[in-house]
Design brief:
By secondary structure, the protein is mainly beta. 0% of the residues lie in helices and 48% in strands. The protein has no helices and nine strands. Strands 1-5-4-3-2 form a five-stranded antiparallel β-sheet, with no helix packed on it. A four-stranded antiparallel β-sheet has the order 6-7-8-9, with no helix packed on it.
Amino acid sequence: MLTEQETPIPNLDSGNWKDLQWVDEVEQFVAVGYAHSKSLLTSSDGITWTSYTGIPNIDYEDFVYAPALNKFILKGLSGSYTSTNATTFTLMLTSIS
């Protein structure tokens, strides 16, 4: 079950965050990193952040949004995942290296 909660602004200087991008199509900032239970955060304003539980609890290295496919691709240390909404992810059968 996916749940969300408000979380503090991520400290991008901590070394735990690997990527932060604004995604026009969903009007959200998306941050991914090595924060364990809060390794994916989203924000519409860059001030109030939402963390998600119920997503794979792995360390993420990078993500990309492909507008033509309407998909996020999230690369983790132990697998890669796809999503159309940045909240529900499906394990890719072929991992990205």
